[in-house]
Design goal:
The protein is of the alpha+beta class. It is built from eight helices and ten strands. The chain has helices spanning 36-54, 72-89, 138-146, 154-165, 171-177, 191-202, 217-220, 227-234, and strands at 15-25, 57-67, 93-100, 104-114, 129-133, 183-186, 205-208, 241-245, 255-262, 266-268. The strands form two sheets. The chain has a six-stranded mixed sheet with strand order 6-8-5-9-7-10, with helices on both faces. Strands 1-4-2-3 form a four-stranded mixed sheet.
Length: 282
């Protein structure tokens, strides 16, 4: 627990330990006026999503918080967001650190995996089918709304903002895919970029049909017919899973077939798609 100089954790016999870490910076990973409770929840979800992509069960987390100044009201709201995430993911907070500086949140999450299983990016083979969970492009649509690029109706705007501010890591789905999926990744930088990581690690080409991409009614309400699919391809921060299954394997509920694995390299979305592959960290 929290209180000593370090957290003492006992690995579960027969399980591997998985460690992931993610950092969010104000103005880069979330708008300056984001509610602190949403920042807290989102920071944990972003890190937990990496566990989902590995098929791991959450064990515990540490949080490092950098703040410009001590603000009791902000900290109380931020702590409530962390508490909501702890409850949602059954992911106890076991330690952390605070310091002064530009608003930055770093979350390290520990998970557990069976010794003989893990979801990795390498392993997809020619003939596999490519799937995604949930709907794509919602977070990009939310950012477009926040920047004033479009004005969806109130219900749609609320849905899109919730998808950006409070994404849900697909931990249960990740565990369901253990022993079935040949490759998997979470969609943080955009489908094109992250599917490209699977293609590179597996030495194959992922052929994706943009017409098959699952869109929410909120995103599909955009007046420009092509914009929602472009966001679904290149927009980041959805934290859904993209994964490959051998042909004939039935996918879990809530997942959509979007393409196939072929010989070659990279990601192919057809000749009509010419957009940036997704978020670039530098």
């Amino acid at each position: 627990g929290v209180g000593d100089d370090g957290a003492v954790l006992e690995p579960t016999p027969g399980l591997h330990q998985v460690s992931v870490i993610d950092t969010m910076v104000e103005g880069v990973h979330f708008p300056d006026d984001t509610f602190p409770e949403d920042i807290g929840f989102r920071a944990v979800s972003v890190a937990a999503s990496d566990l989902a992509a590995m098929g791991a069960r959450p064990v515990g987390m540490t949080v490092a918080l950098t703040l410009p100044e001590a603000d009791e009201l902000w900290l109380n709201a931020f702590s409530q967001g962390l508490a909501d995430a702890v409850s949602t993911y059954q992911l106890p907070l076991v330690g952390g650190d605070t310091t002064r500086g530009p608003l930055t949140i770093t979350v390290q999450v520990l998970g557990a995996l069976p010794m003989d299983r893990a979801l990795l990016r390498g392993g997809a083979g020619v003939g596999d089918q490519v799937y995604v969970s949930g709907t794509l492009g919602d977070a990009a649509g939310a950012l477009a709304f926040l920047s004033g690029e479009w004005q969806p109706v109130a219900d749609h705007a609320e849905y899109l903002l919730d998808r950006f501010n409070r994404p849900l890591a697909r931990l249960e789905l990740g565990r369901q895919l253990l022993g079935q999926a040949t490759a998997a990744i979470d969609i943080s930088d955009g489908l094109l970029a992250d599917a490209g990581h699977i293609a590179a690690a597996s030495g194959v080409k992922l052929s994706i049909d943009p017409a098959l991409l699952p869109l929410s009614p909120a995103l599909a309400s955009h007046p420009a017919d092509d914009q929602p699919r472009l966001w679904a391809l290149s927009g980041g921060d959805d934290y859904e899973l993209c994964f490959c299954l051998p042909a004939g394997v039935v996918p879990p509920a809530g997942c959509t077939l979007i393409g196939a694995v072929e010989a070659g390299a990279g990601v192919d979305c057809g000749p009509d798609i010419d957009i940036a592959p997704g978020y670039q960290h530098f």
